[in-house]
Recover the amino acids of this structure.
DNA sequence: CAGTAATTTCTAGCGTCGCTAGGATTGCTA
DNA sequence: TAGCAATCCTAGCGACGCTAGAAATTACTG
């Protein structure tokens, strides 16, 4: 009985270690370096063990992405209570992407298996989106909050991805972010209090 | 003599066919389906021939991306003369991405070998960016046109990529685009003094 | 026209990838 | 302690990007 429990606990622990190893490796050398063989070596098991936990490499990346969603939601949720929520959320967003580039890619670029704007979307992801929605709500004007939040989020995502791909002129990240926040309504001194 | 010229012309033609085959295959089945073996079969030559034209698969994708830049620049340049250049450029941009999804990915997501915001950036790419800059110039206000253009471009890019990855609620593409254009154009009063 | 040199192209293969089948090993039950 | 499950590993499959060296083709010479 208790042995059965111990086995299940050990299995769960090993599953955690797989995802952690994938994240470490991805953050250190990029997702291309995350191979099933290297993952297996890192957790000190053989390759097929991975497939007793996940359906494949894609599922491991998706699991890492879900973890990332939760962490991103945490940061955004905290920022949403800032006096200037739009600017705070924007900064928290790019800071997260900057600190966890591989994880960010796993969430938004790779991990096509991950359901997003559907009923089966991970709760963590909905929380992250809710934080953005809360931040844009005060400046919604006549626009729907949900659609506006998606638009603002997409703009942030574009800045992050193009910047990382060296598609934008270096050294102007803060300026671009300030422009975006200003155009969407916050940051300009005015509606406060 | 002329034979030498003919050989060079044939070689150039074959190179064009390689890139065309890559684009066709990518647009039909995605870039993952573009393998060197399938490319070789499509142009009816053996695999190593590809490497006498390009340094590798990445270079072939980069060549396709440069072609795509030129076509994108053409569409954006035409839209920049519209009475409402901001909206016209935005629509032309998403229309291009919608009509050539694989090519769009080659330009902006893959093709990391492609130099962008540097001196060696392809002229076609600079033209495309110039069209965006021209479109945002009238609504620049106190912002620098170049930085503003990058920000607007990034926002468009974010909408395109998140939408394609099913990260956004379906059926609201036009609304999101309208919001973006409004916030960047009408939302801010005229040129600052 | 024949023979050789140079170029082009192909066959075959290397190492690695994600993934899986089937046998060996372990631990539990009786 | 014998039998049975669950667990795990060795070995291998097909496909990938890419490359070395042989074969075939072309071009140039005597």
């Amino acid at each position: 009985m208790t042995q059965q429990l111990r086995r299940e606990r050990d299995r769960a622990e090993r599953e955690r270690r797989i995802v952690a190893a994938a994240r470490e490796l991805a953050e250190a050398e990029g997702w291309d370096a995350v191979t099933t063989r290297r993952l297996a070596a890192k957790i000190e098991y053989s390759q097929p063990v991975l497939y007793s936990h996940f359906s494949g490499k894609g599922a491991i990346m998706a699991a890492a992405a879900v973890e990332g969603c939760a962490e991103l939601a945490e940061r955004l949720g905290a920022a949403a209570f800032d006096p200037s929520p739009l600017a705070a959320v924007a900064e928290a967003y790019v800071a997260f992407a900057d600190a966890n580039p591989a994880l960010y890619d796993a969430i938004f670029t790779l991990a096509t298996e991950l359901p997003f704007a559907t009923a089966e979307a991970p709760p963590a992801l909905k929380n992250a989106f809710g934080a953005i929605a809360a931040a844009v709500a005060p400046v919604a004007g006549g626009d729907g909050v949900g659609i506006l939040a998606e638009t603002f989020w997409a703009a942030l995502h574009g800045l992050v991805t193009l910047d990382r791909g060296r598609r934008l002129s270096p050294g102007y990240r803060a300026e671009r972010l300030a422009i975006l926040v200003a155009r969407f309504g916050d940051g300009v001194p005015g509606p406060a209090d």
Notes: Chain B has two domains: 1-54, 65-193. The interface with chain A takes residues 108-109, 112, 115-118, 143-144, 146-148, 150-151, 153-159, 161-163, 165-170, 172, 175-176, 179-180, 183-184, 187-188 of chain B (CB under 8 Å). Confidence is low (pLDDT under 50) at residues 187-193 of chain B.
